[in-house]
Specification:
This protein has 133 residues and is an all-alpha fold. It has one domain (5-132): Protein of unknown function DUF1465 (Helicase, Ruva Protein, domain 3), CATH 1.10.8. It contains 5 helices and no strands. α3 (38-69) runs parallel beside α5 (104-132). The longest helix has 32 residues, at 38-69.
Length: 133
């Protein structure tokens, strides 16, 4: 069965961002933290974890949607709290937009992961409203 139109592009975007974030955290983040003071280093670590949280939440949601689409999970299960996008409070934080102390590479990852999370949250909301009405 063919995946819904939104799925493949969103999945590919999420996977690409996950690989880029992993590479940033493995090869760049530590170097960036060493160059700055302790407080900014802590902020870098926190924001790197926020990027990871956003991407993990989106990928988990996408995988669940694939299972529903493939008939492995009943469609009603997509409405349960366990299968919904979560981490909203942490993932929707936009305070990074005005933080000039953070490295550009991290800011880019933060912005793109934020926009992806917002887009998927909007998509989920539309899907839930369609089912409930």
């Amino acid at each position: 069965m063919q995946s819904p139109a939104y799925f493949n592009r969103t999945y590919d975007e999420t996977m690409t961002l996950m690989v880029e974030a992993r590479n940033y955290m493995a090869y760049v983040e530590q170097r960036e933290r060493r160059r700055v003071g302790a407080m900014i280093g802590l902020r870098i670590s926190c924001e790197a974890m926020r990027v990871t949280s956003r991407l993990t939440q989106v990928m988990a949601w996408l995988m669940f949607q694939r299972a529903v689409h493939e008939g492995e999970v009943p469609p009603e299960a997509a409405l349960s709290d366990q299968s919904r996008l979560s981490g909203t409070e942490a993932c929707m934080d936009e305070s990074f937009h005005h933080d000039e102390t953070l490295p550009n590479g991290l800011l880019s990852l933060m912005d793109r992961s934020f926009r992806l999370y917002v887009r998927v949250a909007r998509l989920e909301k539309m899907m839930v409203q369609r089912v409930l009405h």
